[in-house]
Model the fold of this input.
Amino acid sequence: MRYFWAFVLIAFLIAQGGAQTETKPDAPPAETKPAAQTRETTLIFPQEGERWWWAENSKGEPLNAPQKTSDASVNIKLPEGAETLWVYDAKSGNLAQLKASELKEKTELKSESWTHVARVQVNVKSQDKPVASAIVSLTDAKGDTRTQVLEPSAEGILVFERVPLGKVEVTARYGDEQKASQETTLKAERELRVPVIELALSGTVATLEPTKRAGETEAKAEETPQVSRIGAIVMFIIALALAVGVVYFLVRLATQKPQQLGEAMSKLGVELPQAATSGAVGSVGSTAPPAPPQPDLPPLDTAGVPPTATAAPTVMVATEPATRIVATQGPYAGQVFEISADLMTIGREAVHPIALVNDMGVSRNHAQITRQGDQTLIEDLGSTNGTYVNGVRISTPTPIKPGDTIQLGASLFRVE
Done:
């Protein structure tokens, strides 16, 4: 019995020791986030040209300064956290928006890849003057609307960036609950790298005096260096002096050595008149007999020729009157303006029959075209930059006919 209880005690102690020395399983190692790897891609363009690229995160914050490339392909490494890759084409003014998650090892940019216009300019005017203040909103093709405040310091010009291609609507709120809107379509292929939307406001609105534009008379005068003017005057004086010297030398040679002058000019293919030479030879002592006297011509009434046949009648060549002018250069290239009335005024205001509102070189009341019978005349109305017919500036009413050219500001027309 004693051994039995000793055995039970020993078994109990062994059981307690095993419970205390039970080992716990090793804890798994702490999870470590794999380091973000920088993604790479090769952008492939149709041809070489100036382009810029930069990356932005999910909040639209730039992660690197724009990088320039002029090659047909470029290998780039996206910074950590990049969500969007922007590519700007300097020639067209368009942008390509690429998602970083959709980039491949080689990403080819095609015509449909360019989805945005980098900058869109909105000119807010009233009666051809910049508007001082307004609230301007632009709604793009995706339905997103962005709003800017037009301040006097902007001189009537606002710029909206990264505008999707397609239909856009520009709306201005001004004055006492007044409103004006303008719709247009932004295309990938266009004449201007920065498209311009003209928004005209009506009614009572505060405006500013327009500043001088490059290309006007004063600006052109400032662009011409004073040194160039002085150099032109000096060159004119030198050329005039040389011309006078050549004329003086030829006169002396003709009076002192006429024979040598005649031989020299003959070698050059120029035949001098022989009257002076024969006179000089006669004065020395020519023995040539004088020419016999010519008999008097009979009177007209005895000559057998009727008086009406003495002069050929004057033939008047009829020309077709001008019926229209066709723009060949400038903002209106390709447009046709019919001359449908006896008086057609031309100017930058919309009230004129021929209104050139988009040509800033045209005055508000620039010129007029009138018909007088079968003749068509054009007259300048005191414009700033003048009116030119066949390259010559006119100051009086000047006839025009089919085939002539007319220049008004930056617009060139062909008369038809």
Notes: Residues 32-37, 214-223, 275-288, 294-318 have pLDDT under 50 and may be disordered. The two ends are 140 Å apart (CA to CA).
